[in-house]
């Protein structure tokens, strides 16, 4: 299948690494392509090596490949229009923050560190030609009830990961979102103070 590629390169205010400027979050995934296991493992390895406070590594992942019961379970925990497109991704990754250690000591930085791990995963995946889309519209309780999820883990996001698909397979509203110009507020609006 030939998938038309949109140029989604960000118009940055200063030069960035190409892998950062060209990274974007599509909704069109190729529902027929198999996952490249080596690239998936590289993305997960990048997450493993991301920084964390006191090296606590307070992230955990459920990696659900399309066609498995686990993928169906994670897909069923998606909410809203995420249910319309994300199940086509080769992999759905449920990401959890370990909010306390085994002795109950809190990890107040857990979600921050999980965010760094997912950022590293996203950049590595994109560098390898895979695409990632993170979703906050999830049923956290359903994800936390999946087998193997301990009580100190909090579901934070689900990540769709895989090969880019054809936007024509999406509904009209989602096609419009895919083609809409990329936008961010000006850099200065994100800086509270600077000296």
From TrEMBL:
The keyword NADP does not apply. GO terms for molecular function: oxidoreductase activity. InterPro entries: Nitroreductase (IPR029479), Nitroreductase-like (IPR000415). Keywords: Oxidoreductase. This is Nitroreductase. It holds the Pfam family Nitroreductase. CDD domains: TdsD-like. Residues 21-77, 78-162 form the Nitroreductase domain. The keyword GTP-binding does not apply. Belongs to the nitroreductase family.
